[in-house]
Design goal:
InterPro entries: P-loop_NTPase. Keywords: Coiled coil. The protein has seven helices and four strands. By secondary structure, it is α+β, with helices and mostly antiparallel strands. Among the domains are: about 60 residues, no CATH class; about 35 residues. A four-stranded antiparallel sheet has the order 1-2-3-4. Helix 6 packs antiparallel against helix 7. The chain is rod-shaped, with a radius of gyration of 69 Å. The mean pLDDT is about 70.
Length: about 240
């Protein structure tokens, strides 16, 4: 690879051979004599003649460099537009870019179509996203309401359990009161019966001990059997009245 320069030491050629035995050299194009040899010295000379910082990478520099024949730069810009365009299009390789652009037109159309569809989908998704945010807010509110209702239900269950306990006690007391009333009625009826029987006993006015004595007396009297039979009938009648 060679580059021709017009430098302070005359017309020079900077060359680099690529292969099994690479080397760098600079030689005078007129005298065809070597001026500088070796990679480091050659690169240092290039930095000097180009007046660039040694921090810049030469490979990157030459990959991006635009080369124009010396002494013709100004004259090219002074040409009419059409001629100027032809020259600079050739220098810049515009035909390559134009050819690539034409070949990429179908791809560009597909990309534009895809972009339009994506934008449409994005619009729809943004609408759904707004609805989603609303739904999230609504679900959050519903959850809070559910938690409040659940708390009330839980408290109500506790109150219900206590109420059931009290109701059970009340029912037990009510059963006891009913049973007590029934027994009290039985007692009252028995007391009335006793009072009634006591009245009957008092109404008869028979002294059992005296009756026994009278029975003994009747046994000793004449016609003892008849008298005993009469006394026995009265005794039986008295017992039936008491019952």
């Amino acid at each position: 690879m060679t580059i021709d320069f017009k430098g302070s030491i005359g017309d020079i050629i900077i060359s680099r051979r690529i292969g099994n035995n690479p080397h760098y050299k600079i030689k005078n194009s007129i005298l065809d004599s070597q001026v500088i040899l070796g990679k480091q010295d050659v690169q240092s000379y290039i930095y000097d003649i180009l007046k660039i910082s040694k921090d810049m990478e030469l490979e990157k520099l030459f990959s991006e460099i635009l080369a124009i024949p010396q002494e013709f730069t100004t004259s090219h810009f002074m040409l009419p537009p059409r001629q100027r365009q032809e020259i600079f299009d050739s220098i810049l390789g515009v035909d390559i870019y134009r050819d690539c652009f034409e070949k990429l037109r179908p791809v560009e159309g597909l990309c534009k179509k895809e972009i339009a569809e994506c934008k449409l989908q994005i619009g729809k998704l943004e609408i759904h996203l707004e609805d989603y945010d609303k739904e999230v807010s609504r679900l959050k509110e519903l959850k809070e309401n559910w938690n409040r209702l659940y708390g009330k239900i839980k408290d109500s269950k506790i109150v219900l359990v206590e109420a059931e306990k009290k109701l059970k006690k009340f029912e037990e007391m009510e059963d006891y009161a009913t049973e007590k009333g029934y027994l009290q009625d039985q007692i009252n009826r028995l007391r009335e019966k006793i009072t009634e029987l006591q009245g009957k006993i008092d109404g008869v006015g028979i002294d059992w001990e005296k009756k026994l004595d009278l029975t003994e007396v009747l046994k000793a009297m004449p016609d003892k059997e008849k008298a005993h039979h009469e006394v026995t009938e009265k005794y039986t009648m008295a017992l039936s009245e008491i019952e």
